Amino acid sequence: MSKSGSIPRRGAIPQLHRCCDSQYKDILDQGRAADAGAEGFRLGPKAPVDTPIQDSKKSGAGLFLVTLLFGVPSIIAFGCAFASSHTRWYPSSALWFIYEASRYVAYVGIAVSVGMIVTVAIQRSISRKYIAWMGFSVAATVVILWCAARILIRP
């Protein structure tokens, strides 16, 4: 503000301390040069205002590993079925229990994995590559579980 109490005119430099006065003038001069066009200071071509911005997708490696983790009980069921049908040294009641428990846990894992795949496919939150790998791992889990059931039928 000026001494008379009125509002200073546009572009007027307010009174500062002597130590800050020259720094303020330099900053103000740089701002005026930038406002005047500053043709020499250009970073690149101007982007149109209506350019769509795409959100980055997550890679999906974590969800793929979770899907593989849900497939582990089917591998355990396959191992128990194989061991109980081809060897006589293991007590079959324990292997039968582990086979049955892991088979039911594998059914739940398959259902959860399919639900997770459908959810991320609808939301498009991860790349299609990982959705495909997740689908292949669920298919492999189903095949392994089917093979475990076939081994016990024909020992």
Describe the structure.
With about 160 residues, the chain is mostly helical. The chain has a domain at about 60-155. About 65% of the residues lie in helices and about 0% in strands. It is built from five helices and no strands. The protein has helices at about 20-35, 60-70, 70-85, 90-125, 130-155. The longest helix has about 30 residues, at about 90-125. The mean pLDDT is about 75.
What structural keywords apply?
155 residues, mainly alpha, 5 helices
Kindly summarize this structure in a few lines.
The protein has 155 residues and is mostly helical. Helices cover 65% and strands 0% of the residues. It has a domain at 61-153.
In total, how many beta strands?
0
Class of secondary structure makeup: mainly alpha
Counting H and I runs of at least 4 residues, what is the number of helices? 5
Distance between the termini: 98 Å
Query: Which percent band covers the strand fraction?
Result: under 5%
Largest sheet: none
Low-pLDDT sequence parts? none
The mean pLDDT is 77
Q: How would you spell out the order of helices and strands?
A: HHHHH
The 3D shape can be described as: rod-shaped
Q: Which percent range fits the helix content?
A: 55-70%
